[in-house]
Fold these 2 entries.
Entry 1:
Amino acid sequence: MKAASGGLFVLASLLFLAVHARPATGADHVTGADRNPAAARPAIAADHPLTLDDAIQLALRKNEDLVIERESLAAARAAVTRANGAYDPLLQIDGTWSKTSEPFNSAVSGTAPDQLGPEQKTGEGGAALQQLLPTGGSLSLRARGSRETTEDPLALLSPAYRTRVGAELRQPLLRDRGTDAARLSVRVANADRQGATATLNRAVTETVAAVERAYWTLVASRQEVDVREEAVRLAEEQLGETRARMETGAAPKTEIAQPRAELERRRGELFASDEALARAENALKLLILGGVADPLWTQHIAPVEEAQLEVVPVDVSASLNRALANRPEITIASAVVNRRHAETAFARDGVWPSLDAVVSYDRFGLAGSANPGGSVGTLPSNLDGRFDKSFESLGRGDFNAVRAGLVLGLPILNRAARGNAAVARHVERQAEASVDKTRKTIQAEVLDAAAALETAGQRIEAAKTGREAAEVQLSAERDRYETGLSTNFLVLTRQNDLSRARLDEISALTDYRMARTEMARATGSLIEDRGIDVGGKAR
């Protein structure tokens, strides 16, 4: 009774399709698309084979995001060099010449009665070397020499040669002792470089993961097209068999409506798969190609790798430990914490009053010739000479000066420094909390990736079993159809079941590949697993 009801339902369906189908003049009336099913869709020209490694290398060389991050890292490294430049010695050299005639309000100016002051000419030069110390102090070395001539009869020497060498050390004892602006700049630059390196690492990881996902999506899209083409071919065969039965009178003319409708439906699915394939191909090109002039934009990509692989178990505990040790996001967040630590130390140091210890020592030399217009008697022998004599005096240490002292700067209230220190502490705590949040997020990502990988692995065997069962069912149904025990409806249904089973298997394999990629990304091991250095170049 149930079999009869099913037969009536099938017959009614066929009659409905026959009534609404386009009228035919006879059993042999078919469209051009029936005779040539590929004529209505563009051919798939896959003329550029591409491996996954090749795709990754192209992306690492040409992807704009990586170019941006590499430039950011280069800028961060240059910033470190710039910050360390504060400790470069500074050499200053100067030279001056002057002519002076200052009036004296005195009766003993030493000049003629019509003059108010003697004329003095001076040529002077010097050099100073300054060095910032890692302790926050500074050391300066200085040397000067001059030649003076004067009309003052009270002067002992004219010309007179003066020399001087000395050193001064200034060391902060309170503010700027723990850290100062120079050390802050170095620590901040190093933290930024650490963060930029990790950011590039993350960009490389994300790029490789995106390329792998796009590559396997393209592989799956091509396989889907193959499945759709096979489904069209099977529908054409079924249509041919039905037409042959109609010609022999074994089947009514209305019988051709169902396989023809199914053929057109499958062609529509094939066209949709062609579009999905083109989109998948363009998505991969967007990741791996450079400028718009690259010739590969106008070529078809033929991936040469298959998604077949061995399912391996997941060690969740080891994956979590690896992720917490390797993920660049943690390094980026830690770099921010290091920067905040430096800023907090500098702000806290700024609350102290300034107290600097200053120590200096200078030696002086003097030599020259007796002033011809002077009133001084015999010139001492140790002063008679030129510059060389002055240097002798300098070397003997006949004249020197020693200075030691403390310089205290005590700001009243100091509210600005205290406010800066409080702000820095709060910002530092925010950065530390961000690290904890990043660790939790990464842990959740690893657990999600592990669950997805395990599920995808289980789906592969189930999909394979389902596809094998669908193949057996279709074969059995076709055998029954050939003996007259089945119908077009049941054969086409089994064909559709097989297509879905094949697509499910493709999806399971592709999902497992992508889950493997996501697991490697989540654990931070993708770069290492693919043999890529931090600069983003494949080895």
Entry 2:
Amino acid sequence: MKTRKRLQITVVLALGTVLFTAGCELTNSPPTIRIEVEKEEILTGDSQTFNAIVEDPDENAIIRISWSVTGGTLANKTGEEVSWTAPLSLGDVVVMAVADDGISNGIDSAKRTITVVNSAPEIISFEVTGFTDKSPYVLMGGTIELECIAVEPDEEQLTYSFNTQAGAGSFDHASPEDNIALWIAPKETELAFSRIYKLFVVVSDEQTYFSSDTLEVLVYKEAGTIWVVDSEQAIVSKYTDLGDFILTSSHPFEEPRAVTNDITQDYGCYVADYTAGEVVKLDPEGNIEAIFTNAPNVVDLAIHARTLWVLSEADSALLIYNTWSSGPPVHRVSGFKQPRAITINQNNHTVWITDVGDNSVIQLNALEAWPDSVSDPGVIVYRDEAGIPIFNFPSGLGSRRLSDATLYIADQFHNQIERLTYSSGTGTYSRNTPISIANPSQVVSNVKGEVWVLNSDGSIQYFLESNINIAPFPILSYAFSNPNSMAVDGVTGEVWIGDNGNHQVVKVLSPDSLAVVISGVDFVADIVVNR
């Protein structure tokens, strides 16, 4: 009996054990995972750390965390913390982390989206230093300073690269990080004529995102430039020999009327301000160098050596100034009735003045003692005498400044161009055969032996010094309207004409060719060519 009882207990215990185990079988709860990031937006190529925050209800000892990304590079792919480097391309990158406790159904995952961004540098300005309010220019072989102001929204280091159209000229650029560079323009030996060049800057960030900008710089040579006096706009402007605008003087003129230059000095000019009663000397940049006062209503002026010769309509006099200093005239020649034009021959120092008030032409010598009046002894006056009509309203003069060639006089109401021919043997001028032209008001002579005439009816003609028997050639390629002034290039022979009816300045060439047109002028009172 005892043995059977023991056996029964054993069975019961065994069964209890089985029942206990079956009733208490364990179920696994998966971990939960979430991702923490430092930035949801990141620059291309930048790095940041991802952290996995894991909770496990069952508190399993070992949980494996693995990482994956759709872009960029992970320094490591497992662990609670990983380092990631963003790609160089823009867009969204999905980050996924998986937590696995190693038990059945013990997996959870999480995703975060990171946006990869990069802002290109922003160029605020790209300018030539000193030219913020005007178009930049530089002499051939000259140097200008370029400055680029840029900002980097992403706070990356910027680099600057400067270049020019066709690689012209050369740069002095200290380092790629320097936003300032010097550009040395092509020299005259490298450049046949004035032209406009494009200059470029490229600003790049550390990820090679970039912005660019362009500006234009006029590269010009001084020889052949012209000064144009616009009395209506009260400005004096400078242009290249191809008609490109260079600058306008900042001096506040009241009514500029006439202009001349000194061919032995620089490329500045002297401008007569009719209303202000003064002559202003400008340097090649249009800045004031000197002001000559007590010059009321100046109609024309000329330079000889270091003296400035001015015709004052209000004063009916010739005023002479010392160009070494500003101030009033150092001498005055009276006795004129209505002086109109003046020219000075730089070779033989002859000063010629027309006086339409008494139909005369006065001859002086710049090196001899200056007279006080045109009636003084030694002053040569060509005028009507003994009933012989020599001139009738001699309005214009023309001669080559560096030649002893013939002096031409526009004798308007006699409808002819008078000629006074110089004799080197005697050092005197004598009257020669006049040229018949209707109502000439201005005349210029060039190195090609052409004599150009502006007529009061608005037509333009020229004739040849070598053959005065050939009828003057009319300019037909351009319809002039109220032309008012002419200037000749002493080297090329090209002629500039102020065409006020069309509000233009034009350059014409023989035999009948329109070369350049400058627009935007109101009334061209005078022109001078720099040579």
